[in-house]
Each structure stands twice: as C-alpha cells, then as structure tokens.
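<context>
A single protein, sequence plus fold
<sample>
Here is the protein in question:
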Amino acid sequence: MAESDVRKIRNIGVIAHIDAGKTTLTERILYYTGKIHRMGEVHEGTTEMDWMDQERERGITITAAATTAMWNGHAINIIDTPGHVDFTAEVERSLRVLDGAVVLFSGVEGVESQSEAVWRQADRYRVPRLAFVNKLDRVGSDFSRAVQDMVDKLGATVLPLVVPWRDREGRLLGMVDLVRWAALRWDPADLGRTVEALPIPPEVEGEATEWRERLLEKLAEVSDSVAEQYLADGDVAPGDMVAALRQATIGRLWVPVLGGAVLENVGVQPVLDAVVDFLPSPDDVPPVQGFTASGYPEFRRASADEPFAALVFKVASDPYADRLLYTRVYSGTAAEGEVVLNATSGRKVRLVRLFRLHANHRERLAQVTAGDIVGVIASGPVFTGETLSDPEHPLLLERIAFPDPVVFFAVEPRSEREEGPLREALDRIAQEDPTFQVREDEATRQILVGGMGELQLEVQLRRIREEFGVPHRVGKPIVAYRETLARPLEVTEEWDQVLAGRRQYAKVLVRFEPLPRGAGFEFRAPVPAETLPPEFVDAVRRGIEGGLGASPVGGFPVTDVRAVLHGGRAHPADSSEVAFEACGTQALRRALEEGGTLLLEPVAEGDIITPTEYLGEVVSDLGRRRGEVQSIQTRGVVEVIRCAIPLGETFGYATQLRSLTQGRAVHTLRVTRYDEVPPGIAREVLRSRGYDG
C-alpha cells in the first residue's frame, strides 16, 4: 500500500454509556455506506454488529465488533464497543489500538457516569475524538445543556458544529450545519439516505448565528488563515474552517460536537464526513513506540516500508479455526503464509489466514499492511496484548493493562467426569477475556471465576453451557475483598533451614507501613550493599510480593502496604536468593499476624436515573444498602442520583430497582475504589471463610 493510501484510512471506535445509541449509529453508518442493505434495530434484535444471541436477546453490546466501511474514498475501520460497565475491558483494548473515537451522549441524560469513564479511558490513550449528542427528538432533550455538561463534567473544550432545527412545538426537523451554513433535512421516505441542504430558516437563524460566531472566534485562536479572513471579511471559507478544525482535533485541543436522532436517521452522514475530515489517519498520529530485543526504545511509522509490527488486542473463539486474533498492524506488511515472530513469547508463528472483518463475517486477504485492523489465524499460541513482528527486526509493543476482578462465582461440575471439560472451557474463555479469571479458593478448594460484575460472569458462564456444551452449577456471587496492614510495625525475621542437605540462611529487618487506599505495594531498600548484596535485596522484594497473594489472617490478597528493608545479615557460604526470598515472605506473614489487618471491600460509584415520583423509595433503599448519595440532579421529569455503594450490596439490585420503580429506573455502577469494611461485617466475612479473625 502506498504512503498516500495510509492517509485514506481511519481507525475509529464508537464509545459511550449503555443505551446511548452506539450500535444504532454503527448500523446507520453501514447502511449509508452501502455495507449492508437493510438497517438492523437493537430493539428488534436484528443488528449486524450485535451478532451474538445473548446480545440480541439482551439488547446490549457484549463484545467489541469490527467492520470496515468506505466513505468519500476513505476506508473507515470501525469498532463498536459495549457500553455496560462489566465489559469495560472491551473498550480499554479497543482504545489502545484506535486512532480516533466518536463518543455518543444522550441529549436527555447528558454526560452519564459511564460516559465519563470511557472519556477518561480515551484521555489516557490520548485518542482524538468527536462528540455526538443523540436522541434530540426526545421530550426533554437539550443540546445546549448536553454541550455544557461536557464542559462541566469532562473538562473538555467543545466546539459545536451543528445546532438543532425545531418547529414551534419543539419537534426536531433537522440540523443546522454551522460550517457550511445550511439547514440539513433528512428524507424519512428513504430512511434518511437523502439529505437536503436548505437556506437557514428564520426561526433558527438568530441562535445559529450566535453559535457560528463562537465557532469562528475559537478557530481564529488556532489558525492565522481563519483569523485574517475573519478580521477582514467577518466570515471564513468552509475549506479553511475544516482545515483548522482538523488541526485542532488531531492535536486534541478541542472536540467537535455533532448531533441528531440516530434512531430517526437524522444526523448520521455528517458524522462520516467529520470522521474523514477531522479524525487522524494512521499517518497523522505519533509513531508507535516499542522495545528492541536489547531493551532499547524504537519507533515505527505507519508505513509499508518499515519492518512489520502488529498488536493482538483481542482473541475470539472461532468455530472453524480455534482462535481468531483481532490485530492492529502498526508498520510494514505481511502476507498470508508468512512466518512472523511472537515477540512477547519469543516463538515464531505462521500467518495461516488473514481476514478483513465484518462482525462475525470475514473476507480473505492476501496481505495486510500498516494501518489495517484485521483478523488473523496463526499456527501457534498468541494471546491478547502480544506483539507480532518481523523476525529480523523484533519489536515488543506495550501490553494492554486490565483491571483486577471484583466479583467471583463458585463453579462446580455436575460430576467428576465433567470437571476436565469445564476447566478447559473456562480456560478458553479466560484466553479471550483478560478480565475473566479462573482460580481455586485456598480455603474451600472450589473453582472460582472472577470478573468485573454479575452480568459479565452470567454471560460467559452461559457461553460455557451453550457454545462449549458443558453443564455446571453456579454459586452465589462472592465479593473480591482485600486486606491491608492495620498499623505500622518493624519485623526482624531469620530463616535458617536445611534444604536438600544444604543449610540456607537469611536475616532481614523490615518496617511495614499501611499506605493510602489505592496505593498498591511499595518497596524501599535503604540498606548498603556491604550489608546485603543487591541480588539478596531483590530476593527479599520478590518474597514479600509473593506473599501478598493471600493474607494469613483472612486469606485475601494484601494491598496498600509499604515495606522498607532497613538491614539484615547474610552468611558468606550459606546464604542464597532462595533463603532471602523465603525470609521476605515470612517477614510479611509475621507483620500481618502481629500488626493485624483491615478488611477492604470494593465500592461501586455511578448514577441511578429514576422518575421523580420514586426518588424517596430509591434513596431509602440506598440507605439500607450502606449507600452514600453524593448528589441529586433534576433533569426534567427524572432525577439523576450520583451515589457510592459497597459492591456486596449491589447483588440483585437491578431486580429490586425495577420492583421499586415499576421498571422505569436505570442504573450504572462501576467499582472505583476499595474502602474499609465496618468491623461487624468484617468479622462475619472472616468467620464465613473459617477464619476466627
């Protein structure tokens, strides 16, 4: 592929809060670009991108689906991501490999908690984005308020490029394009395929003129050309406005804002134009950084002339070829049948098949090149976050970080004979979904599966039954508690053992201190090398880290602890790294037993949106669940309650909330932090696990 062709690629994601209209927007895009010939609807279970049975039944996106559409001579690779908080890892790994994003907001609810979460994820990956205010046809929708919400809650510098065009009764007729200065109307007779550009109607001209003046003033800040035209003529040519907008968007200075009503087919084509006009090609983003075999940083441009480097961002079970690798090609080219290096594992694999993806369909490719997002079937094991590269020029790209599970289910086979197939199926799911973890409970010896929430685990365990044909029993949800040190103390620990006929000796002096919530583990070693050699110091660190997996007090992982190695003693003949590692583990265990621990529980934060008449019942129920109301905001006929609630109190909450509000309230809660468990509840938790605590 020539360099100029890379500039005709856009790799974008559609991200948002659940039910903001992401999949509906993607379906419209596919229809208007000619990729599909019939529009699917989420509420009818007929969408192209939500192809899994469970997605169609539940009306939500569960797994990020990829597709490619053509618009104005540009190839747009689109990833439609889930909005539900339990599937946030799908958003995380998508943002890692995308060059731009379209973020949807509801014109009624504005910026909701999960919208805020995905926005912060995009910030972390430095992804340029467009915003789209959807549902402007609904009663209570307010474009200006949604735009102000982005400023207030997200700290974004937003640049509205449209304003709604409504009749006297407030019905949405179309949108006013502030750049090209035209009123756009979509023809309902052909499902919005025809867009008519009309003169600005008098009823919206005053408001639109105000918005356009603000837009021109902002653009004049980044573009001398715009500033000169604006000062000379009081107006600016659309082409110069587009050039300035592209520069500001790619530089992440501003976020262009569009709007419409996707379900009514209003406002979709301007999104495609904006993706092409304002979002970066692979050539416009900084070169990807990786590390050579020697550990030196190296950059690769999005060019076919560079050595091949690609990141596998997702692994999916494939009914025909075991495992399909969703892969972003950052540099170079590779052909079907070619042997490449898995730079993460150090093993070579052959690219057996290459595909252009369209949801669960695919199209064979002879080769892939820089900028592509494709499906790969490889001859050997490759996992999420691993790098495929040119064997002659190895490059290791940064892996994708995923959050730890916060909730577990105990899973049992129905008979001994079914245990093997069950474990195998669980391992297959764990390879696909990095937030789905399988382990054995040390206290009960049960198989535990962990994830980000009840819904995620229910979905994956149903797949075990239906896709893999393995029946099983599931226990009640279990909270992923943690422990931390209750008070600081200093420990002197000596290890003197005979192992395999040889004496092993180590002695350490370590001060252990509790850290603030969320700090994790910290190790310091202000100990001179003549007292303890660096390899023994490192062994102590490894030993303490190894002991953090399970506390001797309650059996839970230990966090928010600092260990400071002040001193120790080594024997010239009998000391070893093994001895110092064991000594470090023992020192931690003693500190936890003597200093005591505090039990920590995950706390979920988010929004509950309820009709005003049910506000009292919802707030009272939150109080009974140890919930904390942080704010209540009135939005027309609904109240938005921002709250925090211990995760253990949210099990079954969806059912209770429906019961309290006749099914009219919705909630989005995600774990944001760990807090101390009240002493009475902590004693009950430890007692239930067989610890006298």
